Amino acid sequence: MARAPRPLIAGNWKMNGRRAAGLREARKLATRMRNQKQRRCDVLLCPPATLLAPMREALRGSRIALGGQDCHAAASGAHTGDIAAELLADTGCGYVIVGHSERRADHGERSRQVRAKAEAAHRAGLRAIICVGETAAERRRGRALEVVGEQLRHSLPKGCTAASTVIAYEPVWAIGTGLTATPDDVAEVHGFIRDRLRRRFKAEGAGMRILYGGSVKPGNAAELMAVADVDGALVGGASLTAADFWPIVKTCL
Ligand code: PEP
After folding, report:
1. 102 flagged as catalytic
2. N or C: which end of the chain has fewer CB within 10 A?
3. Which residues of the chain have pLDDT under 70?
4. Among the CATH numbers 3.20.20.70, 1.20.1050.10, 3.90.1150.10, 3.40.30.10, which is that of 8-250?
5. Residue nearest to atom 2 of ligand 1 (CA)
6. 3-state class percentages of the chain: helix first, strand second, coil last, to nearest 5
7. How far is the CA of 134 from the centre of ligand 1 (A)?
8. What is the sign of the dihedral through the CA atoms of 26, 31, 34 and 36?
9. Residue 38 has what pLDDT?
10. Who contacts 33 (Cβ-Cβ below 8 Å, separation ≥6)?
11. CA 39, CA 148: separation in Å to the nearest integer?
12. Is residue 24 within a helix (H) or strand (E), and if so which, with residue range?
């Protein structure tokens, strides 16, 4: 039987994190990780771009990885305000989130663009965390699996491997709302995603991590992490302080 993927707990700070308070929280997490003997999962922080370089220093020696929240498809050039995957790698990032529903909604990003960004991440040697998830209306109409299936089909580049690619299932209606999908709903969608990944990427698809995201909190993390084919979490609001994020990390450590 194939070995279960090593879990990943990822924090997405979005457009939050002033320098002093943000670095204080990052240092607290780094200290807790350094003091931790057993590390059975990977931990990642994706702060705003303004904090990437100082956070790299704050996390040094902790084995907490650093990631970007988005990247441009091009390696360089005249793209004011954007960040190339190569620049993220140059700053010490190991991961980048692409296709987050807030980027899809706020910037009109389509799955084909998401795929180009994931290709850019791979080109730069970054792991791409590719987000998929249905809206409340799509779920009400019974279209959740269809929507997630289409997003997977068009957002994932050829040649994705277990090492290069992480999928995050984030039902849009659960992000930042305090609502979470039930364990049964999560199991259904994660099982569906695993099946699609296996069909397309064979053994690599079986080993790819599938994260759940959407109002993961210290109080519900253990239950969600126990669901089949949930290989970690993508956490927004509850990743902003060590007091909230650490208990979530601990469910997998
Ligand atoms: C997210 O930003 O990806 C997210 C899941 O946010 P929250 O945990 O706040 O719902």
Report:
1. no
2. N
3. 1-2
4. 3.20.20.70
5. 236
6. 45, 15, 40
7. 14
8. negative
9. 85
10. 39, 43, 62, 63, 64, 249
11. 31
12. helix 19-34
